[in-house]
Amino acid sequence: MSIDQSTAARVAKLARIKVEDDALPALAQEFNTILGFIEQLNEVDVEGVEPMTSVTPQRLKRRADVVTDGDQQDKVLGNAPDAREGFFAVPKVVE
Known about the structure:
Blueprint: H1 5-14, H2 24-42, H3 73-78, E1 83-84, E2 87-88
Antiparallel strand pairs: 1-2
Helix pairs in contact: 1-2
């Protein structure tokens, strides 16, 4: 797969990145380099390799998935800029 200048311009437009016309050839070349690297990665045999999230084995600490009341309404509302009757108060946004 090869990216030409018009495709590079379209990608830049979709990404809402302003690219000058004189920079399009370099951008297209960069896309082609990236796609070439991806094609190289597709050649790697990963059969039997487990997906991993880190190079070191680790397990995140987890808390019990238990529903609690919390009973911390005062603490939660303590940082609110405006709270009334036990709720966050926000300005009206819809007329």
